[in-house]
Write a structure and sequence with these properties.
Elements (H helix, E strand, L loop, with lengths): L11 E3 H17 L1 H6 L10 H15 L8 H15 L2 H17 L5 E3 H18 L8 H17 L5 H22 L1 H6 L4 H19 L31 E8 L5 H9 L3 E8 L3 E8 L2 H9 L3 E9 H9 L4 E6 L6 H6 L3 E3 L2 E4 L2 E4 L6 H10 L5 E3 L3 H12 L4 E6 L7 H13 L3 E5 L4 H17 L3 H12 L2 E7 L3 H5 L5 H10 L2 E6 L5 E7 L5 H10 L8 E7 L3 H14 L4 E6 L2 H7 L4 E7 L3 H7 L9
Parallel strand pairs: 7-8, 7-12, 12-13, 17-18
Antiparallel strand pairs: 1-2, 3-5, 3-6, 4-5, 9-10, 9-11, 14-15, 14-19, 15-16, 17-19
Helix pairs in contact: 1-3, 1-4, 1-10, 3-4, 3-5, 4-5, 5-6, 6-7, 7-8, 7-10, 8-10, 16-17, 18-19, 22-23
Length: 621
């Protein structure tokens, strides 16, 4: 289609022309994101550079380009602001800072000539360079710099108009991109160019096409979807991730001091630090093993928001697995670390609030630290569902690498988590992403997530896996003993009369999940001192000794009770599989210290369940 409301880019460009050029460039970048993901090996081979760059510029597309703005300076200010708000990952943060510098270079200008345009590109490259704590040659930074310098040279060589200027600058960027493997050993070893630099060249190629034709040749798809999964080729290996978590947040304050903030963050045990933004709003990107430590530093400088953490280890291993179906759960599920890593399960963290301060479950603290904070708190801890942005980020990443994604959610009867996941899944990719209500909590939810992962590993589709999960849901339950019901009453999980009766009769309440997804009283033990032994006998009377089970025993600040229950159940059911784990904050906030919960699932392999349901196996499909 012919670009509307533009001026001819001969010796000057305005905001309307730049808008159309960027739309064309963003479309080219997004269409090539799967290839960019495949070649992503630096700084970490987490296969998300294409997705991160595409999502960063998609924020520009849906924000700054919605309306025609002829004034170039005002338009680029909008571009920079939306890029900063939408920045994802290392490459996205660098890109956002490039556009910030470019916008400063054309500030106040309705239109600019070639010389001013080239200077703005140089300012953008310089701004991106200083945003990186440890810049490396052979990366996006190098190509940004070479591209800007080539504009100055093209003007000196007599470029007649913008078309010739951009053509020469693109040729230079391509040469610089091709040279990146000679500058960075990890690229040479993998036989690829730098992924971030490839994304920038893709953007430039789309812009150049518009400069040549004056047309945007195709429209951008509504969603960021792939027609097929594109896992990283097995021969491409990046540097080992020194730090596990890709951590980001937005920092706002008046007069932010980037130098002092950089120095404070540089003192941490971390890497890949990028600071993008202005003196009032800054996006922080860093790789670390302790996200809470990062946020603690940032809080000294201003107000933090939009905290996010991605587990790069899980992302990398999951993509390498070559599965068609990705499994995601929330941290309401208590799953042993060995099973999380064995099955490459992805987690979206719930939020926990203690004394008006919000933490990210299983990221901001471990279980021991959680109960210490609870003991020192002046108010009852509360939990809340993950924000939609957390689901959107995870779904978009998984949708760009897998044919299907299935989210196994905590019971919808107890939390709005499933509704949040379902709503975002429909917006991102209704055909490829499904949120499933497990109607379970904690350990039984975890067992269902593990079973779903085994279905994915066996090659079953999302639809088949959901049918098998429905079968297993009726064969999975959690039971818990709670010595002190105060937390459950204050958290709204139990009526106060249940606590009054239990205290009066000195009973130990047994709580359990019901088919409707509610947790409520299912029994009582006439002992508090020997509650664990009584609980083991109570469970033994309800389980079939001829049936093999999977069991997860979780404790809330009661490790001795957890070990005792695990030992007793192992003796009673020697043919079953059993794991022990510390319960996360999602359970601890409602059950309180002293709770011990066991998830019980009748053991069947996915093939056995498929045979019972008369489903075709993946080999037969």
């Amino acid at each position: 289609m012919t670009a509307p409301d533009t001026v001819s880019a001969t010796d000057q460009v305005d905001g309307a022309w730049m808008r159309c050029a960027l739309i064309a460039g963003i479309h080219r970048l997004i269409s090539n994101r799967d290839y960019i993901n495949r070649i992503n090996v630096f700084p970490v081979a987490d296969s998300d550079t294409g997705t991160n760059m595409a999502l960063t510029m998609h924020a520009v597309l849906t924000g700054a380009t919605r309306q025609v703005q002829h004034h170039l300076g005002r338009f680029m200010e909008e571009v920079a602001d939306h890029a900063l708000d939408g920045a994802r990952g290392n490459s996205g943060a660098i890109f956002a800072q490039y556009w910030q510098g470019f916008a400063e270079g054309v500030a106040g200008q309705e239109h600019v000539d070639m010389q001013r345009f080239a200077l703005a590109a140089q300012q953008g490259a310089s701004s991106a360079q200083v945003a990186i704590a440890e810049p490396r040659e052979g990366t996006l930074l190098t190509v940004l710099t070479d591209h800007a310098r080539s504009m100055q040279q093209a003007i000196a060589d007599g470029a007649a108009n913008f078309r010739e200027l951009l053509e020469e600058a693109l040729a230079s960027a391509r040469r610089s991109l091709a040279n990146t493997p000679k500058q960075l050993d990890v690229l040479a070893a993998a036989g690829v160019v730098d992924a971030g630099a490839q994304g920038f060249v893709d953007l430039l190629e789309g812009m150049q096409d518009f400069a040549e034709t004056g047309e945007i040749t195709s429209v951008l798809p509504v969603g960021l979807k792939l027609e097929d999964a594109t896992p990283v080729p097995k021969h491409v290996h990046g540097e080992e991730a020194e730090h596990r978590y890709c951590t980001e947040c937005m920092l706002t304050a008046e007069g932010l001091d980037k130098r002092r903030l950089r120095e404070a963050l540089a003192d941490l045990e971390a890497s890949s630090l990028v600071l993008a933004g202005t003196r009032s709003k800054m996006r922080i990107h860093i790789h670390t093993n302790d996200p809470q430590e990062v946020w603690g530093v940032c809080q000294r400088f201003g107000d933090i928001s939009r905290e996010k953490v991605d587990d790069m280890y899980t992302q990398y291993e999951s993509v390498r697995s070559g599965k068609r179906l990705a499994i995601l759960a929330d941290t309401g599920a208590d799953i042993p670390d060995e099973l999380l890593e064995q099955h490459n399960l992805h987690l979206v963290p719930l939020r926990v609030t203690i004394d008006d301060h919000q933490y990210i479950d299983k990221v901001s603290f471990d279980a021991t630290d959680f109960y210490r904070r609870v003991a020192e708190a002046s108010s009852h801890p509360t939990t809340s569902q993950p924000p939609p942005s957390d689901y959107r980020r995870q779904f978009e990443f998984l949708d760009s690498h897998f044919k299907e994604t299935l989210c196994v959610s905590i019971s919808a009867a107890l939390s709005g988590t499933w509704q949040a996941a379902d709503s975002v899944a429909k917006r991102v990719s209704a055909e490829r992403i499904t949120a499933w209500d497990s109607r379970q909590v904690s350990t039984s939810q975890g067992l269902l997530a593990v079973f779903a992962a085994e279905c994915a590993e066996a090659g079953y589709t999302s639809e088949q896996t959901i049918q098998m999960l429905e079968f297993m849901k009726g064969r999975s339950r959690s039971f818990a003993i709670v010595r002190d019901l105060s937390f459950a009453v204050r958290g709204g999980r139990l009526p106060s009369w249940v606590k009054s009766v239990a205290d009066w009769l000195r009973l130990t309440a047994v709580l359990g999940t019901r088919p409707d997804g509610i947790v409520g009283p299912v029994g009582a033990l006439f002992s508090r001192r020997r509650a664990v032994a009584g609980f083991a006998r109570w469970l033994g009377r309800r389980l079939n000794k001829g049936q093999a089970y999977r069991l997860i025993v979780a404790n809330c600040a009661a490790p001795a009770d957890g070990r005792e229950l695990a030992q007793l159940l192992t003796e009673r059911f020697p043919d079953s599989q059993l794991w022990e784990v510390e319960a996360g904050a999602a359970l601890g906030a409602h059950a309180g210290p002293g709770c011990v919960i066991v998830g019980i699932q009748e053991y069947f392999t996915p093939k056995q369940v498929a045979d019972r349901l008369a489903q075709p196996s993946p080999e037969d499909a």
